[in-house]
Amino acid sequence: MRLSLLQPVIDRPGPWASVYADMSHSTADAAKQQELTATAIADKLFGLGADEATVGAVHETLATLRTGEPGAAVGRALFATHGEVVVDTALPGRPSAPFATWGPLPRITPLLEAFGDDPVCLVAYVDRTGADFVVRSDRGSDDAGRIEGADWPIHRTASADWSERHFQTKVENTWEHNAGEIADAAREAFESCGAEVMLLAGDPRERRAVHDKMPEPLRAVTYESDHGGRAPGAESERLERDIAHVRAAHEQEHVHEVAGRFRTGSGPGGSGAPYAAAGVPALVEAAREHRIDTLLVSPESADAGQEIWVGPGADQIAVRGSELQYLGEVHPAAARADDALVRSAVANGAEAVVVRDPEEVPAGGLGAILRWSEPRNA
Asked: Omega into 98 within 30° of 0, i.e. cis?
């Protein structure tokens, strides 16, 4: 997922209230049910020792949340501390296991699990005169602009007359010109919105012409849909399925590629040095030294829930509390290894990937691809 969502909680002192709430409703008394849910979560946090101001902020946020249409699957994740809800984000659906916790770190790994890789898809709705661009992710849809090409001439005729053939040549030239303009605009939109995959929707001829005029790196991550188009009302459930399929396939391919790099442990240029680490002690050491490039996480694994020690800063992480005391933190706190390592990954610009396939999960459930290997003793 895009870890920038978690940036506000990094290096911010706790303790933290972490809430994963199911705010779905299907009955006429939705407001009452929402208030009951908010109150139950507030009571839970009070019981865990949370302060009144923080509990109040969480309760108000949940009680006043707009949950949309009845029957919709509505999940919410909140992280709050010192009387303020610092992060409040919608989940892709209901949380797999709603809960509320109070501890030294926010419980951020379930958010990573809920969103997965969350590849951003740029959907281009094309026709002969231009294209509309929409960004799609787990957080919904965002307009990404449009391009209008030449609008004359764009229609062929059925006549075989010389002048008509000349006119048809102009039509073909207009189509080609517009396809090039759309391809350039699609490239710019793709780069500016940070998309990882593109889907072209519209008539087959226009889609193919635009696809063929894109630069090769972009063509490699661009797909076409036979459903939907630029005309009003052209959206369809089949197009929605195509978008979901393209995003899921890209995520699976990315996770498989990351897991393969982890298994081989190869470094830049194919070096055979151990550019991979597994096991909590090795990962903690690599995190402190900012050597983690990509963190691999299996959220339900044994290592993920292992207790380690942390301080307020993302670099204050250790297997034993005495290590942090040696480093100057006099009040270390116990936390889950996965949350502490994900926090470190966010702070140091690393990537974090959820690995669900048992065949690809690192031993113990946590692993990392390193930016550089551990220096050897002289």
From this structure: no
- Quick one: 156 and 91 in the same domain? no
Which tokens belong to 357? 């396939």
Q: Phi/psi at 273 (nearest 5 deg)?
A: -65, 155
What are the pLDDT digits (tens) for 306-337? 999 999 889 899 999 888 877 677 788 999 99
304 strand-pairing partners: none
> How is residue 85 annotated by DSSP?
E
Residue 83: HSE in the Cβ half-sphere, 13 Å Cα cutoff? 2
Tell me, what CATH number does 81's domain have? 3.30.960
Report whether pLDDT(162) > 50. no
**Pair (154, 189) in one structural domain:** yes
- Count of beta carbons in the 10 Å neighbourhood of residue 342: 28
- Res 230: pLDDT: 76
Measured distance CA(249)–CA(54) in Å, rounded? 40
- The rounded distance, in Å, linking the Cα atoms of 35 and 141 is 29
Tell me the pLDDT tens digit for each residue of 39-86.
999 999 999 999 999 999 999 999 998 876 665 678 999 999 999 999
Q: Does residue 237 form part of some domain? A: yes
Percent of the chain whose pLDDT exceeds 90: 56
Distance CA 77, CA 211 (A): 39
- pTM, two decimals, is 0.80
Q: Are residues 216 and 324 in the same domain?
A: no
Residue range 4-53, pLDDT digits in tens? 788 899 988 999 999 999 988 777 677 888 999 999 999 999 999 999 99
**Alpha-carbon distances, residue 319 vs 57, 192, 195, 208, 308 (angstroms):** 33, 41, 38, 55, 5
Backbone angles phi, psi at 113, to 5 degrees: -65, -40
Q: Sort residue 341 into left (φ over 0), alpha (ψ -120 to 50) or beta.
A: alpha
Residue 265: which pLDDT band, with cuts at 50, 70 and 90?
confident
The pair of three-digit structure tokens given for residue 332, joined into one six-digit string: 């270390």
Q: 33-36 long-range contacts, Cβ below 8 Å, gap at least 24?
A: 34/62, 34/63, 34/65, 34/67, 35/63
Mean pLDDT, residues 185-202 taken together: 93
